[in-house]
From TrEMBL:
Family according to the record: Belongs to the sulfur carrier protein TusA family.
Protein known as: UPF0033 domain-containing protein
Domain UPF0033: 2-69
Pfam families for the chain: TusA (PF01206)
Source organism (scientific name): Helicobacter pullorum MIT 98-5489
InterPro entries noted in UniProt: TusA-like, TusA-like_sf
SUPFAM superfamilies, sorted: SirA-like
Length: 70
């Protein structure tokens, strides 16, 4: 499992950092991000690449996503 920490980064940096992992076809990716537009874009991009998106934790303005290749 790969882990990607994009907390505190502004758009479009979080999705630009995530894209190579999605294109490589990693089976499982855990993404830590700040709430806001970036989190919506992460979910949308992951779904586009065929990943199921699950929220593992959401607290204090941060979200941890579990992305699983389908």
């Amino acid at each position: 499992m790969k882990q990607l920490d994009v907390r505190g980064l502004s758009c479009p940096e979080p999705v630009l950092n995530l894209k190579p992992l999605l294109e490589e076809g990693e089976d499982t990716i855990e993404v830590l991000c700040s709430c806001g537009a970036s989190s919506d874009n992460i979910k949308r991009m992951a779904s586009h690449y065929g990943y199921a998106v699950e929220v593992l934790k959401e607290e204090q303005g941060e979200i941890t996503y579990h992305l699983q290749k389908q």
